[in-house]
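go over this chain:
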Amino acid sequence: MTKRIAAGAVQLDADVCNAVDPPVRGCHAGAGLHIDIPADWAARIAAGQQVPGCSYHTLALDGSLVVSDTAIAQVAKPAVSNALPAPLKAEAPLLVTKLATAVDISLSPPPIEEM
């Protein structure tokens, strides 16, 4: 179940999600859509830059955060969250609390994108 934290998300929340559900090169772009993915895609994501064509967690312009079902499941496991680096380990329980009241968007229709 994918959830959206509408308010109160911080960059550390996205960092925790990326630690437990690592970014991947490539995503479902649809038929006929081609995206050039730079060789340094992982470094750009780590530096907070937008990298089209890759799947990763990042804060939206409105401050919200969409959290994947994989990240939700992983951060809930004490063995996983306890193995995170110190700042992320401290943020993990706060993220779990935010996810408890986050909106389930897994059944919501995708937003319509204007071209």
Summary: The longest helix spans residues 86-100.
